Amino acid sequence: MPYKLFMVILVLHYTAAEHYKIKPDFVKTCFKSDPEFDDCSKQAVQQLFNALGPGLPEIGMVPLDPLKIPKIRILQGDGPVNVNAALDDVIVSGFGDTEVLLSQVDGKSYSFYTKVRVPKIRIEGTYDLKGKILLIPLVGRGLCWFEPTNMTIDIVSDVKLYDKDEFVFFNVTGAHVKYTIGGLKLRMNNLFDGISSLEDSTNSYLNANWRPVSESLRPILSKTIEDILLGFLQQLFHNLPANFMIGDIKNNIKKSDKKV
């Protein structure tokens, strides 16, 4: 059954910055003409993730691990999940241990296909929830955490090229995510106004049934990951010339794609 309403509103703050004019040390340059391009690209993207962990303040990028998100708003109606929820002061940790499994770049569109593995992600914050998960009525406000483990994420990034200041840049216009997880643990404190028997039994039930819980939350988690990735990719590649990543990219850009 289609969802009547589905929305995730995620707020992240980035600061304006001047783009790199000299290739930074953490960037590895690959060439599409190289038969070993995919292997080189995998190493290059791994180096990017390693650099993004502590942040790149010189181009206005906040740390990826831990990642601080002021607000996430979730609205979803119908189906196994029907919630009106908010997460405030969210801290996401674990992306600093990302392992890049595969990195490919389309030779014509320059769209990225990336496959990564993250051993464990922890999401914690203050929740305000009214709705149902797996048909269980839930209401509460308090501290919460979620821990998906052994997460494999397939990412397809839509890209257009443009010229600026004698460099070529990636304009990332979309990010699409599919993922699998090997486990999920969670805890929501102060459910049902802190009635401990209901709170404990509900948390125990949700953890014991983590697979259907995970499936029911998939649209919400996918959209949240997509929004996080899109924000990071846009901020990164508006400030990191594509020439530094793909050395022969200039040979393939069209004059019509230039920005004035």
From TrEMBL:
Gene3D superfamilies listed in its UniProt record: Haemolymph juvenile hormone binding protein (3.15.10.30)
One GO CC annotation: extracellular space
GO biological process, one term: circadian rhythm
Signal peptide: 1-17
Keywords associated with the record: Biological rhythms, Signal
Family classification: Belongs to the TO family.
Protein known as: Takeout/JHBP like protein
Organism this protein belongs to: Papilio polytes
